[in-house]
From TrEMBL:
<dbReference type="GO" id="GO:0043709">
    <property type="term" value="P:cell adhesion involved in single-species biofilm formation"/>
</dbReference>
<feature type="domain" description="Fimbrial-type adhesion">
    <location>
        <begin position="34"/>
        <end position="186"/>
    </location>
</feature>
<dbReference type="Pfam" id="PF00419">
    <property type="entry name" value="Fimbrial"/>
</dbReference>
<dbReference type="InterPro" id="IPR000259">
    <property type="entry name" value="Adhesion_dom_fimbrial"/>
</dbReference>
<feature type="signal peptide">
    <location>
        <begin position="1"/>
        <end position="23"/>
    </location>
</feature>
<dbReference type="InterPro" id="IPR036937">
    <property type="entry name" value="Adhesion_dom_fimbrial_sf"/>
</dbReference>
<protein>
    <submittedName>
        <fullName>Fimbrial protein</fullName>
    </submittedName>
</protein>
<keyword id="KW-0281">Fimbrium</keyword>
<dbReference type="GO" id="GO:0009289">
    <property type="term" value="C:pilus"/>
</dbReference>
<comment type="similarity">
    <text>Belongs to the fimbrial protein family.</text>
</comment>
<keyword id="KW-0732">Signal</keyword>
<dbReference type="InterPro" id="IPR050263">
    <property type="entry name" value="Bact_Fimbrial_Adh_Pro"/>
</dbReference>
<dbReference type="InterPro" id="IPR008966">
    <property type="entry name" value="Adhesion_dom_sf"/>
</dbReference>
Length: 187
């Protein structure tokens, strides 16, 4: 019987020590660093040539916007913007950004360089493939027609780019060099 009392007393003493040990334990806090990135828009991929070169263009091929000559006389070059890896149904358009021509603000100005053509700017047109119609994209102003991403996650935006006579005065022959940005808009 003494053995039972001693065993019980020891068990009670041990549980009291364990209980006191747990009661005396202070809470432990652990810092957690959380990182990530919230996107405003979908990360579609855009592919377009970084340069466009014109061959020698005859003065007769350059005309004013009103004349329609830049597109009709073969001076225009096609320029394709391919957008991929987008969700199907996403609507996309493009806007031309840059320095407008001093005489015609709808056109991109040529870079000011020795030997540069005078009275000439660069025009950008949205090309509607089904009808072969063209809509002028005025610099820093309007956007192309919205295009919808297909079920494969892709859409092409075809443009036509051409030198255009920017004044009522005759253009002066010279080199053509211009720099602009094409902004892709997610609608």
């Amino acid at each position: 019987m003494n053995k039972k009392i001693i065993a019980m007393a020891m068990a009670m003493a041990f549980s009291g020590v364990v209980g006191m040990s747990n009661a005396a334990q202070e809470p432990i806090s652990q810092d957690v660093t959380i990182t990530g990135h919230v996107l405003n828009e979908i990360s579609c991929q855009v592919k377009a040539d970084a340069t466009l070169s014109f061959d020698n263009i005859e003065m007769t091929q350059i005309g004013t916007l009103e004349s329609g000559k830049p597109l009709a006389n073969g001076a225009a070059k096609p320029y394709m913007i391919a957008v991929t890896k987008c969700p199907a149904g996403q609507k996309i358009s493009v806007t031309i950004q840059g320095t407008p021509d001093a005489e015609n603000v709808q056109l991109v100005a040529l870079n000011d360089a020795p030997g540069a053509a005078q009275g000439v700017g660069i025009g950008f047109w949205d090309t509607i493939m089904a009808t072969n119609e063209h809509k002028l994209l005025a610099v820093n102003d309007n956007s192309s027609l919205p295009r919808e991403v297909n079920s494969d996650g892709a859409v092409n935006i075809p443009l036509s780019i051409a030198p255009v006579q920017s004044t009522t005065e005759a253009a002066v022959a010279g080199t053509i060099s211009a720099t602009t940005s094409i902004k892709v808009n997610f609608l």
